[in-house]
Every structure is written in structure tokens, then in C-alpha cells.
Amino acid sequence: MTVISLKLPDDLARESKSIADSIGISRIELIRRALRHELNEVKSRLEREAMAHALEVMRHDPAYNQESEELDKGLNSEL
């Protein structure tokens, strides 16, 4: 495990200690959980942004649009 040193503003240090105590964990465990949560949130946001970008690229791709139209025609035709 890597050891890091972290400086917190006094109010954040007090609040994090209070919350950790109230849920029965150490402050460092609270900080680990908060960091993991934030990293997961950032990863999810980056994935959503990448998907949105890919969809935007597809929207302007003539070959993709042509293929989509052909698929739509096939799905809408009678059997």
C-alpha cells in the first residue's frame, strides 16, 4: 500500500472526523471511500462523454447513416 501525506483545511478535517466517527470508521477509511467514489464518478462521466462523442461522430458519418436507413427499411418491410 502506498502512503501519502494529505493536508486538509481545518473545517474539512473536523467534518471528516465527525462523520467517520458517526458511522464507525476511521477518517482514513472515509477518505479512501470518498476517493474511490469520486474516481468512479469521474470514470463514468468520461465514459458518457466518450459515448456521446462517438454518437455525434456516427450521426455525421454518411456510411453509417446509409446503413441505418437500409436497416430501417428492412425492419419496416412486411415479411
Give the CA-based shape. elongated
* Element pattern in H and E: HHH
Secondary structure category: mainly alpha
* Integer average pLDDT: 94
The unreliable regions are none
Distance between the termini: 62 Å
Proportion of residues in helical segments: over 70%
Main pleated sheet: none
Number of strands: 0
> Nearest-angstrom radius of gyration?
24 Å
Determine the strand fraction and express it as a percent band: under 5%
Tally of helical runs: 3
Write a concise keyword list for the protein shown above:
3 helices; mainly alpha; single chain; 0% strand; 78% helix
How would you explain this protein's 3D organization?
With 79 residues, the protein is mostly helical. The chain has a domain at 24-76. It has helices at residues 10-23, 27-59, 62-76. Helix 1 (10-23) packs across helix 2 (27-59). The radius of gyration is 24 Å and the shape is elongated. The mean pLDDT is 94.
The gist of it:
By secondary structure, the protein is mainly α. It has three helices and no strands.
SSE map:
Elements lengths: L9 H14 L3 H33 L2 H15 L3
Helix pairs in contact: 1-2
